[in-house]
Amino acid sequence: MIKSPIKTHNYEKLEKFNFDIVKLEKLVEFESEEVLTKNHKVSFYALIFITENSGKHSIDFTDYDYTKGTVLSIRKDQMHKFYLDKKTKGFLLCFKEEFLNSYLNEIEVASAIQMFNELLVSPKTQLINSDFVSIFQLIKGIEKEVLLVHDMYSYKLIRSLLHILITLIYRLKSKEYNNIQQSKYLKEFIKFQSALEEDYAKTKKVYDYANKLGFSTKKLNTVVKFIANKPAKEFIDDTVIIKIKRLLLQYNLSIKEIAFQVGFKDPANLYKYFKKHTTFTPDEFRKQITS
């Protein structure tokens, strides 16, 4: 069996405390360049905060340009990779839901985690100077507690500061949206998103999801169009394509096995579907992304 190239960060501190903060310029001290510069899946939530230099970072096979003041949010189970540059400075904050669970109630944790839902908001936030200062001070406060103070009160303070940090970034992201309308459609969109995650291998039809949720297809399209800025069918196809791309990185899976996992009985239909939406065949994508 060929070993899958997908790897997940396993910082010792993260595993022990469900939280860690690392300076970007010191990343290679904790993880090999081979892992960092190839697409790999993470088992935690991450925030990347850029303080110096410009460059790019890949999240779910999309490259995002960054410069001073860029914040990138990465959701648990997403694929990402670094384009390492020694001139780039900033911070990588990693945490698991359990870290917030011990401080917040279930509703507050769910609300905080929505900031990492790339289907609701872009993974990239670009800060203006005044916001940069506020975010930087919060992160430096977290770093101080981890590296310098580290007493019996530190992790309580870190959880509080992290919650404030996430909430502040989410507020900045929300400025891009009409909050009254978004709150009107948000619950319905999340229900659709959950149904899609559960049933994408069974059906890729808008009607089926609308029927399951008790909506008309017109209403479902209105909800998805407002929140995700695309028709429901395009959203379904984009989600399925991401699932296929992630599976293609697992070399131990044949194209036939992948086709079956995402709901195609005939691999030929997977080839047609994937090429229609990406211009590549599955084999071409697999070769390109790992070359």
TrEMBL record:
GO molecular function: DNA-binding transcription factor activity; sequence-specific DNA binding
HTH araC/xylS-type domain boundaries: 190-288
SUPFAM superfamilies, per database record: Homeodomain-like (SSF46689), Regulatory protein AraC (SSF51215)
InterPro entries: AraC-bd, Homeodomain-like_sf, HTH-like, HTH_AraC
Domain of life: Bacteria
Pfam families, A to Z: AraC_binding, HTH_18
Keywords from the named record: DNA-binding, Transcription, Transcription regulation
Name the UniProt record assigns to this protein: HTH araC/xylS-type domain-containing protein
Organism: Polaribacter butkevichii
